[in-house]
Amino acid sequence: MSLQYLGLKEINGPLVFLDHVKGVGYEEMVELRCEDGTSRLGRVVQLEGELAAIQVFEGTNGLSLTNTRTQFKGKPMELSLSKELLGRVFNGSGKPIDGLGEIYAEKSADINGQPLNPVSRVYPRNYINTGISSIDALMTLIRGQKLPIFSGSGMPHNELAVQLVKQAKISDGDGKNFCIVFAAMGVKNDVADYFRRSFEEAGVMEHVVMFVNLSNDPIIERTLTPRCALTAAEYLAFEHDMHVLVILTDITSYCEALREFSSSKGEIPGRKGYPGYLYSDLASMYERAGIMKGAKGSVTQIPILTMPNDDITHPIPDLTGYITEGQIVLDRNLNQMGVYPPIGVLPSLSRLMKDGIGEGYTRKDHSDVNNQLFAAYAKVQDARSLASVIGEDELSDIDKQYMSFGSLFEEHFLNQGFDSNRSIEETLDLGWDLLSVLPRTELDRIDDEVLDAHYDQNRAFERFGITKGPIIKELAEKGE
Q1: How much is the pLDDT for 469?
Q2: How far is CA 176 from the centre of its chain?
Q3: Tell me, what CATH number does 92's domain have?
Q4: Does residue 106 lie in a domain region?
């Protein structure tokens, strides 16, 4: 028998409070019927004895304290699932908004996911090719990994997200079992249109499941959007054996919605007003990436977040960094120089790449190129710091070489453009040509055998249009 409760105890922001409630559970779905006959959905977000706090998705405007009828559904929020999800666009709570009607559901699943036994996890191996040299070579994205992008206000993270959707593919197979789940939270209408139009123009929409929560949509829906997206991803990965890349943008909008919602519940705030459970809440999303024993599919996550005031110690990037396996940091100085994508190499890393690259995955020399490019670019920063103090003319000849290498590295390797899609072979060959600009004696992280096979200074000078002046010639001879 289903009970209906007449009247409400209190209305506070997006929450309504109902007293003398028995037999209900946390996260249970609720239907509220208004005086005019319309209904709204909500869910139980807090229980204290017989007092239930209910989060109303469509807002509480117009609700009556005396005549609202409340009915508990006896189950948590569920998402309708089917292979028909591919190519469709949904709102933040999983309702179709593309005008193509409802999907025919094969099953429904709790958006909070199922508990996953850590023992059933498989260590992530093999990589996803993004076509972006700085990511593929230096911070490789591994299947089953969670690798966030730390951006800032005004940075081209939306363009980078679109490029990842357009270009990402798995390293083996024809790509038919690869798809992308894209979730946008708190975006403006023009940004949402940009995402959708870009995917359609690139011809990739049939491999994309899109969830869009607009900035004028209820904040409650914003807290559901990533969970709906991850539920769809888990279904496609573990029941249809697909490799799924989940892109979530912007996690900062999600966290701010969580802060507003927490405040309306009267909870004691933590750092910068965010709820004390922000870490565990983010972990409940990020940890849904991975590979399970016996499953042929995988879920890989790229959460994108904007750091307020470019502060990487802000609670959102700080906690995200603890949970995830590395990060890709966008650099504002590179962006102002016109470099796209403006990925800051030194603060970025992928903690799982060491076991997903090399022979059998990318190429045998990948690890050597990665280590040496990192080391050389670190010396570039040292040389630039020194030049800012004593002037570039006073630098040693080898420091001047590193300055030249840094300029070439940023111009040709980091800066590749929005429509450029490089294979892993092209990326690694470009890396070798850049390293070959330096004297061979400076490449101290690579074995002589590997250098013999790939180091070619004449080819590098020809590629980058470098003329052997006296200094270059002398250094080249020393390195031979």
Answers
A1: 53
A2: 22
A3: 3.40.50.12240
A4: yes
